[in-house]
Structure formats: C-alpha cells, structure tokens
Amino acid sequence: MDKHQSLLRRLSGIFAATAMLSVAMTAFATSEIVVYSARNEQLIKPLFDAYTKETGTTIKFLTDKEGPLLQKLKAEGANTPADILITVDAGNLWQASNLGLLQPVKSKTLLDNVPAHLRDPANQWFGLSVRARTIIYNKDKVKPAALSTYEDLGNPKWKDRLCLRTSKAVYNQSLVAMMINEYGEPKTEKIVKSWVANLATSPLSNDTRAMEAVAAGQCDMTVVNTYYYGALMKKKPKLPLAIFWPNQNTKDSGVHVNISGAGVTRHAKHRADAVKFLEWMSSEKAQNLLADANMEYPVNPKVKTDAEVAAWGEFKQNPINVVKAGELQATAVKLMDRVRYK
Ligand code: FE
Prior knowledge:
Helices cover 45% and strands 15% of the residues. The chain is α+β, with helices and mostly antiparallel strands. The chain folds into 2 domains: 8-130 and 259-306, 3-Layer(aba) Sandwich (D-Maltodextrin-Binding Protein, domain 2); 132-256 and 318-338, Periplasmic binding protein-like II (D-Maltodextrin-Binding Protein, domain 2, 3-Layer(aba) Sandwich). Strands 1, 2, 3, 4, 5, 6, 7, 8 and 9 form a 9-stranded mixed sheet that branches. Strand 1, helix 2 (41-55) and strand 2 (58-63) form a beta-alpha-beta unit. The termini are far apart. Mean pLDDT is 94; it is low at 23-27. Bound molecules: fe (iii) ion. Residues 88, 225 line the site of fe (iii) ion (FE). Fe (iii) ion (FE) binds next to loops.
C-alpha cells in the first residue's frame, strides 16, 4: 500500500466514523424551541418542565416585559432565536402581529381548543388563558343589587365613589376598545366621561392598588382582573371586598374578558416544534397548569375551572373577538385622553 492509498483509507475511515456519529446524533437528537415570554418564570417554568418531560423537547426561554421583548424581536429580525412569543392581553398580541413579528399557524387542534373569539381571526396568535375584567366593590358600603353594568359606574349616584386604574394600562385600553366596538365611539366617550366624573381619587397605578383603595374606604368600587382579586384575598382574606359580574341581563352582552396568549414568531427556526408546543398548551393538562397557577380561566371550554376560581360564580362572557382590543387600541387611547382619563 503506497502512502497515497493509506491516506485515502484513513480519510474514508474518518468519513465513515463522522457519518455514523451524525446518524447517531440524529437518532438521539432532542428538539429544542426558544420562547420569549412576558409572563414570569415562576408561572411558565412548570409548564416548560412538564412539556420537556412528556416530549423530550427542551425549551430555552427569556422573560421580560412585553415592550422590550417586542423591540428585541423587531431588532433581531430574521436572526432571532425565538420561536414563540408569550404575552398577556390581546392588545399586545395584536401589536406583535401588526409589527409583522408573528406568522399564521394552521392547526386543527388549536382551532378546536381555543374558541373563535379568543384568537386572532388570521391565526397569528391564540388565547391560552382567559381573564375577566369585572367590578369589585366594598361589601360594607355597596349592596350588590345597586350595581348593574360597566356603564352604570358613571351614574351620578356613584359620584366620588369610583376608583379606576390608570388609562395608561393596556388592560383599560383594551376594555375601552371593546366598548367602542360594541357601542360606537360617541356612546363610549359619554360612558368613560361619566366614569371620570365619578372618580373619588386620581387613577391608581395598578389593579391591586385600586382594590386596596376600595377596601380602605377611599372609594367604593373599581374594575380589575379577577386574578388580582384572588391573589389579594389570599393574602388578606378579611378585606371587605366582593366580586360583581356586570352586564348579565338578557339584553346585556356580558363581562369583558381578555386573554394571555402566544404566537409563532415570523422567523421561527423550529416552526413545527413550536406549533406542537402551542397545541400542547391548549390541552387539558397544560390548561390546568397555566390557568390554576394564576387563578385565571382555561381558554379551552372542555377544561374545568379551578375550584377556588369557580367559587366566584358563573357569568356570561362578552363574545366580541378580542382582536378588537388591538384594532381599536389607538382610538381608545385618544378617547380616554379627550375625556381626561389619566
Ligand atoms: Fe396582569
């Protein structure tokens, strides 16, 4: 064997070994997806761990506020490592799709598990949990029979008795956007103006502060997401607060709901695995993990609500598609500005 042949043999040996190694690696390869999440680690990590345990797919994730995450996705463009974006509020998800950061997903599982009004009509994002934005009142000061609708919070009988969270919060922008969709702009403007006229104090920085003001007697009622009520009452069970479900008469359209949700990023590198993960998130197991951990409602109607949450009572849900929260967000912000809702 000459030198040349020997080199060839050695080379082909190396090639064979490399080929075998790569086959082996493929056989044992575990897939991986990358998630950008505006929901905190404490809430989402148990879900990721459960998914990895069940499927072998590992999940890398980064948590931050939705603003910075959207900016990051935008700046990274086609080079983003992110396959999935998770965030709260349809207004935020709509912003992400409007910025071209998401892509449509075709999945019968998601269409089956997520009701039509809780997902993007263009399938770029899907609700994963439901949050109800409802009235919380002081039991010592208000008889629930005196309460009725969101609109009625502007009734002169509640003068100096209402507290509201700031209009800078996306939750209230979404609420007003949904009202604009339902009543039109002139009527919504009248309603929001009448709320402002009833304010007992300038708008509060968050839902919990607003409820604490009600409990402290600064005002008698406010509008918040129910999971904040759940968390606060767990910490301070003696607060004189109770839930009221507005707009429940036959002619009324129900309690305003919003979602937390997710979409596959425009430039996802692991698209198929990302879709599989979203589908799993809509399954019974994941739905319970996600909704119960934050005292929210499952988005999948086949999944049972946590007993503690169910104890707050049943209510009729406003069936407007939550995409309106995004589409009418700018209109809502301008309207709130006009009536000096700070
Ligand atoms: Fe929240």
